[in-house]
Design goal:
C8orf32 fold, four-stranded antiparallel beta sheet, alpha+beta, about 375 residues, elongated, 6 strands, 2 domains, single chain
């Protein structure tokens, strides 16, 4: 009986606690029964796949096709050069380079015989030499066509470019002689083109010699020492470079009278007075004005450029006048002292000129003659 009471008390206490919210009981649930795994299935056998079709390797005919396109563009360059179409010539050179690049790519991938590989390698090398040579010729011929050589620089720059073009084409011809496949040799004959370059080069070299002699005739007359005292005296009140140059320019413009030179040498060069003689006579032509100006400015430390000038726009461009250019604070000023109404740096009208720096040219000529400086 005692045991029964105890049980009832225990149940009553638990019930009271639950009702009071002081005890929470989490119901215990039975563990879920494990489900049986699905029956195993056999793997589906892999289906055989059809291999992708391989791209056929490039062959010799593919390379010949690209190389033939490059050759056609090279032939176009010749036609364009002969007709003065320089932009079109440059575009054909670019197109030829692209075709050669494609041919080189195929060459590295193709399965060729030893002879085919050697011939193709030589042909591509040959064509690359031609491209460089043609590029040089385009630049030169365009410069000569529009007269840009007058400001492009002395003749020797043009001659250097033509010489390189000649060397490249000659090298191409020598490379072509080692090619056995006559198909690749089509369009590889440069003999006539090289001969025309030889003729052009010979003519320009002869002209360059005359120009060099003519320029040196004037350059050699520039004598800073003989007029140094006068130049210093004229510029003693100048407070800056521009005023000093202006003072000398004004002196030559206002003091030296312009007269034509009746004396001409066998080489069709004007007689050039020494600067002291021009000062004493107070007269001279454009050459004498230019030489005197250059001498006085060089005497007090300014760098001058003597310029052969074409005073009209009519073809051909032929120098018929002379003046000088002086640089002050990185700016070039034309000194045209024969224009008696012009200020320093002013030139009446258009002009085209080829300039020679006094110091550089004289040094170059003395070295060429083995005299040193």
């Amino acid at each position: 009986m005692k045991r029964t009471v105890t049980l009832l008390l225990t149940v009553g206490v638990i019930t009271s606690l639950i009702l009071a919210g002081c005890l929470q009981i989490t119901p215990v649930t039975e563990p879920a029964q494990e489900s049986e795994p699905p029956p195993a299935t056999e793997p589906t056998p892999a289906q055989p796949t059809t291999p992708a079709a391989e791209t056929p390797a490039a062959d010799y005919s593919d390379i010949l096709s690209f190389f033939g396109e490059a050759e056609r563009e090279l032939n176009h360059v010749e036609v364009y050069l002969n007709n003065g179409k320089f932009s079109e010539a440059r575009q054909s050179i670019v197109d030829a380079q692209l075709h050669l690049s494609d041919a080189e790519t195929l060459l590295s991938e193709a399965d060729l015989s030893q002879t085919e590989e050697e011939d193709t390698t030589l042909a591509i090398s040959c064509a690359n030499e031609v491209l460089v040579g043609y590029s040089k010729l385009v630049d030169v011929l365009e410069a000569m066509e529009d007269g840009a050589w007058l400001t492009w620089g002395p003749y020797h720059e043009i001659i250097d470019s033509i010489t390189e073009a000649q060397a490249r084409l000659t090298a191409a011809q020598e490379i072509a002689s080692g090619i056995t496949d006559q198909t690749l040799l089509e369009g590889m004959e440069f003999a006539e083109f090289i001969a025309s370059i030889d003729e052009m080069l010979e003519q320009l070299q002869a002209e360059e010699l005359l120009v060099a002699i003519k320029v040196y005739t004037y350059i050699d007359k520039i004598d800073p020492e003989s007029v140094r005292d006068l130049a210093i005296e004229i510029t003693e009140d100048a407070t800056n470079d521009k005023k000093a140059v202006t003072a000398i320019f004004d002196y030559v413009r206002d003091t030296i009278k312009y007269v034509n030179d009746p004396r001409v040498t066998e080489l069709d060069f004007d007689y050039v007075q020494p600067p002291q003689q021009t000062i004493q006579r107070e007269a001279g032509d454009c050459d004498d004005h230019a030489v005197l100006l250059a001498s006085m400015l060089e005497a007090i430390g300014y760098s001058t450029t003597i310029c052969f000038v074409d005073t009209d726009e009519e073809a051909p461009l032929e120098p018929n006048h002379m003046n000088i250019i002086v640089t002050i604070d990185d700016r070039e000023y034309i000194l045209e002292a024969t224009c008696k109404t012009c200020d320093m740096g002013e030139y009446p009208g258009e002009m085209y000129y080829q300039g020679y720096d006094y110091a550089e040219f004289k040094t170059m000529m003395l070295e060429a003659m083995g005299q040193g400086v």
